[in-house]
Structures are given as structure tokens and as C-alpha cells.
Amino acid sequence: MFKFMSKKGITLSLSAVLMMGSLVGCGAKTETNGAASATPAATTAATASAKPSDTPKTELTGTITASGSSALLPLVKQAATEFMEKNPKVTINVTAGGSGTGIKNVADGTSDIGNSDVEPGAEYKDKGLVDHQVAIAPFAFIVNKDVKVENVTKQQAADIYMGKITNWKDVGGNDAKIVLVHRPDSSGSRTLVKTIILDGKDFTKDGITQENSGAMKTAVVGQSGSIGYVDTPYIDDTVKALKIDGVAFSEENIKNGTYKLFGVEHMYTKGEAKDPAKAFIEYMSTKEFQGKQVRDLKFLPADLLKK
User: Which residue, 9, 73, 85, 239, has fewest beta-carbon neighbours within 10 Å?
Assistant: First the structure.
């Protein structure tokens, strides 16, 4: 038998149902608000995790001036071309003038980099110059192709440049006058020859003087019976390179100590190098540049003689 509720009972029951529905609705709303309030925190965490940990590198800009050694010039020019391609907002101006000029310019602050085949003299001891060694350059005596001599001893080469031997017949060649081609006093190439071959003695004043290595090679090519000296990047089939004491220049002969006429190539800065000059010197010192471009241009890597 069914029992019927009174109107009062029905009213109370409906109120209870509505109250439960309201509580359920409030609970759902609370959960939704909780999810919404968590969203910004989650977004922030995701953004933080996606953010790079390293600060992006600043693009290099500015101008670099490098002057000095004409022996080193081919290598510096090649490096400058490549570096400017990789860093289009950097300009590098490279000039020659001789090692002495490069050292003076960087000491005076007129060049950012001073290129040199030799170390600075005592007068630059307190100028704060910092040495960056970038290559080794083999040097050789070159002669006009009409000279019938393939080899000279160290003593013969010294006597030729001191004016004691003046005819090629005295060293096994034709009866022909020896025409000397010199570099100026500011030249590192001249200093190397004076130090290594002449043992510090003075050159004769006879002969002609050329301002840079390229001009010296051109003079030897154009003058019968002539002799000069350049680093090996300038040697081609228009001239003949002489052996010294029967030894030709080569990487192996420099390493084993049998070929003596070579120089360490320096790039000096006044104080520690700063960008963009610092980055440029570091580029020339990379394993890739030392291993390929340095050898392609007939220089040798800077660390060749390091043990």
C-alpha cells in the first residue's frame, strides 16, 4: 500500500533536492576555478623551460687596422677576406710597410695590429705589446732564372750580401756580375737574413732596394744575374729558389733543424686584444685555418716547432 505525503512533506523534500543540486553546482564551480587559477603558473613554467640558458652572442662590429710585414701580408689578407664574409659589420684594412713599421704603428696606437717577422727591439720593451704568433714562414734566396747556380753555402750567401763575392763564377756559376736586391732597414725579412745568415754583420750598400716582398720578386724576375730573398708564399716558377748548404726549404727540414732560414710570424696588439681584433686573431689561430689556409698559402702552422 502506498502512503501519500502531505503537501508539507513534499515541499520539504523538494527543498532538500534543490539544496543538494546547489551544493553539487558549487563544488563543480570551485574545481573549475582551481583549474583556471593554475593555468598562468603552468604557462610561466613552460615558458621558463623553453627560454635559452645562454645569452645570444653580440654581433661583431667595427674596423680593424693591421700594418707591417709584407711577408705575412698574403696570409692576413686571406684571413681578413674570410672573416669579413662571416662578420659583415666588420671592416679590416691591411697594409704592408715592413715589420718595423707595423711594430711602431701598434705601439703608437695608429694600428690595432702590428704584423712582424721579428720580435720588437729593446725600445718597445715597456710599450705593453702582446705577441700573438700566427704562422711560421720559410724564407729563401731567389735568383733570376738565368743564374746557373742551384745551391750556396751559408758563408757564400753571407759573403754575397756583404759584398765580398760579386761574381757568380765564384760560387760555381757563369762569369756574370751578381746584382743584389735588398729590403729597407724596416723590413723584418732583412733582419732575419742579417741575423741568421750574416750573423749580425752589415749588408753591403751596393745593389738596389725594394719596399716589399712582391716588389723584390718582380725586381729579381726582371734583372739578369740578380739575387733577393722572400718568404715562400712569393715563390713561383718565374724565379729559382736556392738551396742553403745543400738543403731545400720544407716543413720536414725546418722541423729537423737542417733548414735555418725561417721566421715566426707575429701579430702584436697594444695590451690584450679587444674585439673585433681579438676575434680576428682568434680566427687565424683556429685549427681549421691553421690546418688548411696556412698551408695552402705556403706558410706553416704556428705550433709546428712546439713540443
Answer: 85
Q: Of 214, 205, 241, 234, give the one whose Cα is nearest residue 95.
A: 214
Residues 6+ apart with CB under 8 A from 289: 79, 82, 283
Read off the amino acid at residue 138: P
Residue range 138-255 forms a domain whose CATH class is alpha beta
| Nearest CA-CA partner of 186 in 211, 161, 154 | 211
CATH class in words for 62-136+263-296: alpha beta
Domain coordinates of the chain in residue numbers? 62-136+263-296, 138-255
CA distance 266 to 276: 18
- Fold matches, 62-136+263-296 and 138-255: yes
- pTM here? 0.77
| Tens-digit pLDDT profile for residues 125-173 | 999 999 999 999 999 999 999 999 999 999 999 999 999 999 999 999 9
Give CA–CA dist 171/160, Å, rounded. Answer: 10
